[in-house]
Amino acid sequence: MSKLPDNLIINQRATDLAQKMADGLGFTVSWTFRGTKLTPDELRSRLTIAGLDPDTVDDIEPLDGIKAAVREFTTKDGKKVVGRAAITKKDAYRVIIGIRHLEHRSGDDEAMDAIQQETLVYDLMNNTWEDPGTSDEAGKLRERVLDRQTYYDGNAVREKLVMPMVRQASGVQWAKGVYFTPTENAEVIGNLQDALRGTDTFFLEVGGIVRGVGQEGKVYRSATETLGGQLEAITTQIDGWVDMTRRVRTDTVDHVMGRFDELMGTAQMYEAALSVSLGDLQDRITELRERAHDVVNAKDAELGGRDSGGSVSRTEALAAMETAQLAGTYLAITGEEAPADRDDLIAKLDAALQALEEGDEEDAAA
Known about the structure:
globular; single chain; alpha+beta
């Protein structure tokens, strides 16, 4: 019989048949977090424990911390939001932030006006407050800014640590916020548990799925839907190449071709685990790979060859896409609803694509 890795902890509420898990279908993985705060160094350390590249965790740029804090900041009267913050002006030297109260427009019970109450000014050159404001609201906003400039939150732990490991374990979406990973990759999930051990604000739940209890069909549907969604995201990216006026970057093409290899390997793993055919999905992967080659070759012929630099960047390509297209791609890759803010969506989608690329590089190195 197979043996589970010693560091894998299965939620006993999910199953008390641990040995059956060794020969089972796999595991469900989910998580909850509240009040999670990790410095960049602390998050890098946990990535190292998991076997991921710690260099994927950047220091927090002061401006990024300001943007996050302003986006999250509200004042309330009971449960009712009565005030928000907004960046009213920004240049290379300073950021001007307004604290605004929401008031009903005269003669209209539904329309709200944002009335500027106070202005704060942050000096980007010296990373300090030029005008910190004087109200209690200003004080709370400054505290939030400092917090977001100092710590990564649970969303970053999910993005930088949890999801890369779930993808490395060939995870597919089981339900909203829940992923299934095959037994063959149990060691990866055990390593993720090791990396999260000692945190008291981020909790990983791992449950076992045994064979012969009617779950094979759901695993099959989850695998085909998740892999199909990822193929749709790649299709969208390739469609974007067709309309580009610049060459497709060599590293971008290499990344996409690597994704095809990863998807094919995942499809074959699930095919073997479930003893079913995923031939249609594998045919789609093969056909899309061929289309990608055809598009790149046509673009090379049109523009006289392809080079490794000077072409459109991934961020530029994302910025040129429609918001609905971005949201669909984000959902396909992460299994989560897209952020409402477009700039935030582009940044997080860029990071998710980067994480996929780095996962491919690690697999190749191994």
